[in-house]
Write a structure and sequence with these properties.
Helix 2 packs antiparallel against helix 4. It is elongated, with a radius of gyration of 23 Å. Strands 1-2-3 form a 3-stranded antiparallel sheet, with no helix packed on it. A 3-stranded antiparallel sheet has the order 4-5-6, with no helix packed on it. It has about 190 residues and is α+β, with helices and mostly antiparallel strands. The chain contains 9 helices and 6 strands.
Length: about 190
């Protein structure tokens, strides 16, 4: 989207850009981004191991943009170390950084969660199966994933265009239609 491109064009700092990439192209939550370690990136398999809500750990594939940017990050240790001592930055520090960049890009309302939402919505818009979106978003319940299933006019039109074309016949409790592409009579269902 143009908003996503504008956002990425706004940031110059390597670490800030990586925070954006992890939210936009891996759907990571703020606390997950803050705690990324080099050891969690499998550069050969192109995956990242993420420990999310409830301590659930899952491995997900890395988007090529993240893989390319990961080359400049350490293979061991925190990617976003705290300046106050040992350990990673706090979740709020990363979240505030992302929110600040979004404002500079003219995106007034937003933060890491909005980018995560964009990621899930974009997967759905591109036609990715809902179960795959659920896995990539690391949702325990498919109901959580369904909020990303926006149906725009183009997709509704495509759905209608897939329906049977040609004359429909009703009789003896059945509905039958002529499939215009093959001139075959097919049974649609029982009335």
């Amino acid at each position: 989207s143009t908003e996503a491109a504008r956002l990425l064009d706004t940031v110059n700092r390597r670490k800030t850009r990586m925070m954006l990439l992890l939210a936009m192209f891996a759907g990571l939550r703020a606390h997950e981004i803050a705690k990324v370690r080099g050891e969690e990136i499998d550069r050969d398999e192109n995956t990242i191991t993420v420990t999310g809500k409830g301590g659930t750990t899952q491995m997900i594939p890395l988007h090529s943009r993240i893989s390319e940017a990961a080359v400049s990050f350490p293979e061991r240790g925190w990617w976003f170390p705290s300046t106050a001592g040992a350990g990673p930055i706090r979740r709020h520090a990363g979240s505030n950084t992302v929110t600040s960049v979004m404002r500079r890009a003219g995106i007034v309302e937003g933060g890491v969660h909005r980018l995560r939402h964009w990621y899930g919505s974009e997967l759905s818009r591109q036609g990715v199966d809902l179960r795959v979106v659920q896995e990539l978003m690391r949702h325990a319940s498919i109901q959580s994933t369904q909020i990303y299933t926006h149906v725009d006019d183009r997709r509704r039109r495509a759905g209608i265009d897939l329906t049977v074309r040609g004359p429909v016949q009703f009789g003896r409790g059945r509905c039958r239609a002529v499939n215009s592409s093959h001139n075959d009579m097919i049974t649609i269902g029982t009335l």
